[in-house]
Amino acid sequence: MKRYIYLLGICAVLVVSACQKLDRDFITTIGLKEIEQSFANVQALLTAIYSDIPDGTLYIGGNAMMASATDEAEFTSETSAIQNFNTGSWNAINNPDLVWGNCYRGIRKTNQFLLSTGKINLDPWKLDPSPSAQSVYTTNLATIKRWTYEARFLRAYFYFELVKRHGGVPILNEALGLDADFSTIKRSSLNDCIQFIVSECDSAAAQLPLNASTLPYVATNDLGRATKLAALALKSRVLLYAASDLFNTPSWATGYGQPELISLPVGDRTARWKAASDAAKAVIDAAALPTLGAYKALFNTFNNAEIIFTRSNAASNTFERTNSPIGFNLGQSGNTPSQDLVDAYEIKVDATNAIKFDWNNPAHAAAPYTNRDPRLLMTVVANNTTFGTPNRAVQLHTGGLDGKPITNASKTGYYLRKYQIESLNLLNGNTGVHSWIIFRYPEIFLNYAEALNEYSPGNADIKKYVDLVRTRTGVAMPPMPAGLTQVEVREKIRNEKRIEFAFEDHRFWDVRRWMIAPTTLGKTLRGVDITKNADATFTYKPINVEDRVFTPKMYLYPIPQSELNIVKGLVQNPLW
Amino acid sequence: MVACNSIQAQQKASMSSDAGDTTIVQGHYSDMKNIGFDVQPIQHVTSAISTVKGEDIEKNFVLSLGNALYGRLPGLSVTQGGSEPGASSPGLFVRGLNTFGGASTAPLYIIDGYISNGSGTSNAFTQLMPEEIESISVLKDASAQAVYGARAANGVILVTTKAGKEGRLKIAFTTKQGFNQAQYLPKFLDAYNYSSLYNEALVNDGLPARYTQADLDAYQNGSDPVFHPNVNWYDQVLRPKAPVSSYNLTMSGGDKYVRYFVMLNALSSQGLFKKFGDQNDESSNSKYDKYNFRSNLDITLSQRLSAQFKIAGSIEQSINPNNYTTGGTFGLLAQLPPNAFPIYNPNGSYGGTSLYSNPVANLLSTGFYRDNSRTILSSLQLTQQLDMITEGLSASGGISINNFFESGSRKTKSYPRYTISKGVIGDTIYSPAVGQLTSLSGAEETLDQYRNFIVQGFLNYKRSFGKSDISSMVMVNADNVTVFGPASDPSNPTANSTDPYRHNSAAGRFTYAYNNKYIAEFSFGYMGSEIFAKEKRYGFFPAGSLGWIISNENFLKDSKAISFLKLRGSYGIVGNDIIASQGLSTRYAYTPTFGGGGYFFGTGNTAVGGFAENTLANNNITWEKEKSMNVGFDATLFKNFDLSVDYFNRDRYDILVPSTSVTPLLSGIVTQNLNQGKTNSKGMEVAIRYNTNSQKDLQFFIEPIVSYFKNKVVFNAEALQLNPALLSTGQSLGQPFGLKAIGFYTPEDIAQRLVNPKSVPGVLTEVIKAGDIKFQDIGGPEGKPDGIIDGNDRMPIGNPGLPKIVAGLHTGLKFKGFDLDLVFQGVTGNTVSLTGNYFQAFQSNGQVAPIALTRWTPATAATADYPRLSSKDNLNNYQFSTFWQRDGSFIKLRSAEIGYTLPVELTTKVRISVARLFLNGTNLFSLDKIPYGDPESLTGYPVTRTVTVGLKIQL
To answer: pTM to 2 decimals?
Structure first.
């Protein structure tokens, strides 16, 4: 019997020892708790918020720019998702511009970050009485405080990106967990959203350094961070949108049950224009104005006094490969400027006079690229102008190296030059930095002029700031004529905005807020047909490239259907 | 095999060895069936289990055990893997597929009670030889699986190896000698036809023809093999037959103290490549060798204490020319045009171009590669009878240690190849060399290794009281698998660490049978795994089953027609805990992940690292579960006709799916996986066996089986679609979507398209010409036909996955000394898609197969069944569409063996008890609807058939 008990004992020991622990032996990943302990790691959380700033260079599907969904351009590949905007086949299920999720991702990160900043362990310095440690402690406290305003500026920017697309959106200022009740979330009114963004801009502007060279920022390390100027610039843009027609004219969506989501309360338009004008003036007055320098080079740099805020990127040549003419090494044609855009550039007659380009004028039609606003050929690769590495004249005529009928040659008769770093040898794999400028001074000037012209027409500042843009170094267009009517000035400013900011993702939104989209986006896009004559001259003839579709519902994006299905409190935008 | 019991099955089983059943057998039931962690009298089995005996699968020549199971077990789908010796194993699936996404679909393998992990050829299961196997069972329903808890939902394959029996030494020696050969080699057009068609394709594309009439003539009459070569590359690389052989020696016997079963096996198969090693010392002949051993000992230590010790292993070695990798060589063979270049240039150098390497040189002059692997399986179990406490009680404990190691040794070199052209005076001009001659350099690599350590303890109680039979078992199990090497997570080197995969479990089974008529059983598994959060670590998996042996009721007792009839039904819950990639970086969903989110600051655009929140910590992540129901009956009619029928319904839930259906984008939470997916599958299995009375001279048996399943996605959180026909929900698992071909564009269509492109729908990516495949315009971005053919026009087409119906037929006869045994496998309800160079003319600079001869041309428009030829990668014609779909049904003769046993009177004179000569064919033929190859393996290494003659001598 003893033996059995002995054996049973062995079995019992075996069984008990078999029950191993099931915890992980070691952790190889870092969690939020570990991150929040460390000053440097929390800074990395902030860095990650910056990485959510949209980049417009390779925006839709990794290649198309939003310009190709406007009258600025046509994207060459027919199968690109961007074409859905042009054919009108976009909707709540299929929207090529996926900003909703991306911006809310940045908003979540900010909300989480603002909690984390309170948990950083500064005790090693705080508890160390040595003066050097105490000084680090004080600096770190100040830095953490500044971080929160950087983050809040970025969050405000994300909200504005949502608001300009969707109108009023839910304002979420906490990071919700997987098990949160999402169904009760509701859209805030457009007015609340605007007020929220403006107030966040005000807070950030009050606390952030003026620019990247203002202490404690050191440009070598901090260029690209949110600044007071950036916060003020965002406020200027937001208030301009708030004063413009779209958010003050709910009649495009007559019968919509919740007009507060898509328009502001009926109120004093003049006051709104004044607020917009004041906000722009605040940027202008915040610092000494930079001299506007070379136009072409501006878009190949991220370090220029004219730039207020930019989206940084790693060096790459994807943009060149996407947009280079089809006859160039690795070129895919990409975003090709339209004749409509090209026609908008004025002809410089002399130092004081500029006139509109006119196809019916035989002299204009015979030499369409002569004496044009210099920004034209800095933005557009036109036929027989040189481009790229190795450098050669681009042959856009029918039968040319870069023209029809080559598969995927430009449909419009132009290629894009803006943003392209022409010195890159693509076969050698050369790369360059393409940053996406979000705010630069000329926008503020034109915001100011536009708002001023609406509530104080004839104000001398209008001409002053429009001319600042027109007469920049290397452009030197004749100043805007004096004595124009308010309507004429409005047209001049709109045209200036279109030209100066071509391909910078302003047009898509400007034509909406001006409510001229039906006649600009809803009409046939044009290009040019180029014939090479026997005497080596060229004949240019405008042609229709694509019939475009715009219906009023497209003033705003639909709320994604997948969101409506989960968040029952959301209301769809009108007409979708 | 018929999964039931019957008088006949009992007879059959009692003839064969039952030594695998080592636990105590209740006295009055001699015929036992292996079940999870135990054995059970066949009559009392109330769950769905199919079994095949080892001796039945010996009549094969297979390198991987799974290949012996085609058509043998109802409910088990066996899909053919590659045929390259030692390189792959077939896929085994129990009752179809029932999950999707990253979750494992593989069954759990249990060898002699201990789990055997590893996938593909690294699983010890694939290494075993039929000669060492007592039986293989497939546990198909929850009642059979529940004791394996969270690992059982994909089915369990239970292997029991042979054990020695008391008696004198029995020695059996078997050898098989033969060859294997390709069942089918892809056929391509010769140089003349290739170049004529290529000219036609160029002209179709609006390009000038490449070959002149003189070129074509030279190809046709073969007058200029240097500049107008016509090479059949398959013939240059492959030989018609390659030898195979095997030797098997088993010894068994014992006395009342020690019983033993010992096996030694050596197996060799040479590959189909020519003997390149004989031509060049720096290459190697293609060869695969496997050596197996097993030693199973049962030791009676005392009246009540017994021990079982098993040790087995296999050593595999394959050697091949270095650049042999199946895809590489066979991809090139399928692509390379016959006139691309001669094998050797006039000066003896290798032909080749910058585009194509030379397949002969690839095998002859690139070195060689040797792959070695070793598997060790060992276990020790002690069993103590505790009848001094109460009769029928016993306890046992065991440990098992398994090890697997695989390494490779690569000797590499490269060679130059030259393109030749004809100079103006007829001389040969050599292009600069592509590639250069290097000397042989070596590299050693560890490919995979793991170690398994398992401890188990049991308490069994089996006793009969009057009319009641009670059987109960409780056990605990702890296993610990340490994986090194790429199998854990090849993409992440830091994950190749040794954080072990661990399970603790307890299980039990209680069976009560009354009067041998009514049976009730309850079983459970309680299991925990380290991959889940602490509070969600353990799960309980219960199952119950009932059986009613109607034939033991008085009203049927005397029935002549019904010898045996049992109804049974079961219901229970089982789980699948391999729910995602098992690499260290992804397997712990309860720890959050941060990463990415870097940005650029400063005048130098300096990259700065970020911490972006990735997946949130999700403590709720858990294993998949399945509610599994099974009803069936087993019957024996007229004494020698067995019938077994099962119907099942499986509802799998808690499958990982993206969080997109419950977590809105506005939460900002990165899409992660939640346990929300659901599937359903249903099906049935029928197994029939008929055999003649075993006393007669002519004995005959026939055993057909049929399995059927269908599955569907119930919920998978997929993205919304305007066109509901594109939703996967409600479709079969893995349902692909493609375009519907509706003939060819006519010249009138093309004319019409010039006027209005949208009036005759077409793709935007290609200029459409007459003779291109025309597709139906089903939808558009807004769900309506839009005049454009694109992804919106897709619809569900075909079933490339497991066939819905799998049938097997095992039949044989014995007449005097002769015996015949045939195994057929048939499948239907699946499709194959013809893609790549084998079928799509001139794609990727490839060649052209005879399928393209019936191409569309203006003259043959009415009869054409292949689109017009195009010299480029045509983006219209070669899209995934119904045009390239074919019915994947087949009937294959998986094994056939004819044998002759010498008369005993003769053999006993030389003290041989059995001497049998036999001729065996494995994978002899396939009847199918694909004239271009094997429906299970259209590309890559050719499917092989093996023919051997053999001799078995038993002393």
So the answer is: 0.87
